[in-house]
Design brief:
Oligomer: single chain
Radius of gyration: 17 Å
Pfam families: 2OG-FeII_Oxy_3
Protein name: OGFD3 protein
Number of helices: 5
Strand content: 25-35%
InterPro entries: OGFOD3 (IPR039210), Oxoglu/Fe-dep_dioxygenase_dom (IPR005123), Pro_4_hyd_alph (IPR006620), Pro_4_hyd_alph_FE2OG_OXY (IPR044862)
Organism: Rhadina sibilatrix
GO molecular function, one term: L-ascorbic acid binding
Low-confidence stretches: none
Strand order of the largest sheet: 2-3-13-9-16-8-5
CATH topology: Jelly Rolls
Number of strands: 16
CATH class: Mainly Beta
């Protein structure tokens, strides 16, 4: 794996850490949007946007939603926007499958908090990359993930392969992850790894920590397999293309 450097230790309390890296050519094969498409690329970590207490409240939303289903394998997904929920080896639409029961699971406050957190992350990304927050749109998939050490039962459970978001999802321009549990306390393994040509740069999850980066090949990455415990996070993704924008989830 070459040299491994830790960008953010769990014990760090980072206001703002940002590393600029040259943009890949991935953005050239898509329509450019002035004032939004990355011209400055890189990756950042901050512990100063979302509080631990907010992260715990958001984790409880994920736990309640995922208690309705859950994958047979190591990775379960809950997407409040589309309603996609892991159930066994498949996905169901939470809203269709559970109907009015959803009102017993989630509250308006849950969705208001989710919206607020999403907006703050969007504003921070815009600020760091010098773009207008209003030029960015939430895009799919934006989802909660719950990972544990159970072996993979389907390809959806194989989350540890290196990948590039812009290649996997053409609409992505900026990717963010909000961690909802603590590395080495709630789970082992499961660190986030940027795979650079000469070395690996890791981010150790910590509740309330936001890791964000431009979505092109300049940020090839993977997640280590979770060895023990349970890792919760939410992936929140942004596009510059209004045609690929999605709205916030509504109860």
């Amino acid at each position: 794996d070459g040299v491994t450097e830790v960008l953010a230790h769990r014990s760090d309390n980072l206001r703002d850490k940002f590393i600029e890296i040259p943009c890949s050519e991935d953005y050239d094969s898509h329509k450019r949007f002035a004032g939004c498409t990355p011209r400055k690329c890189g990756r950042g970590v901050t512990d100063a946007v979302i509080t631990r207490e907010e992260a715990e409240r958001i984790r409880r939303i994920a736990e309640r939603g995922l208690s309705l289903g859950g994958s047979d394998g190591g990775a379960s997904i809950l997407d409040l926007h589309s309603g996609a929920l892991s159930l066994g080896k498949h996905f169901v639409n939470l809203y269709r499958y559970f109907g009015d029961k959803i009102q017993d699971i989630f509250t308006e406050e849950d969705f208001a908090l989710y919206r607020d957190v999403r907006q703050r992350i969007q504003q921070r990304i815009a600020q760091v990359f010098g773009i207008s927050s209003s030029a960015m749109y939430l895009t799919k998939p934006t989802f909660f993930s719950r990972m544990n050490s159970t072996g993979a039962k389907t390809t959806h459970d194989e989350y540890w392969h290196p990948h590039v978001d812009k290649v996997t999802y053409g609409s992505f321009d900026y990717t963010s992850l909000l961690y909802l549990s603590d590395y080495s306390e709630d789970f082992g393994g499961g660190r986030f790894v940027f795979m650079d040509a000469d070395s690996n740069k890791t981010v150790e999850p910590r509740a309330g920590r936001v890791s964000f980066f431009t979505s092109g090949s300049e940020n090839l990455h993977r997640v280590e397999k979770v060895q023990w415990g349970t890792r919760f996070a939410i992936t929140i993704s942004f596009t510059c293309d209004p045609e690929h924008g999605i709205g916030d989830p509504l109860l």
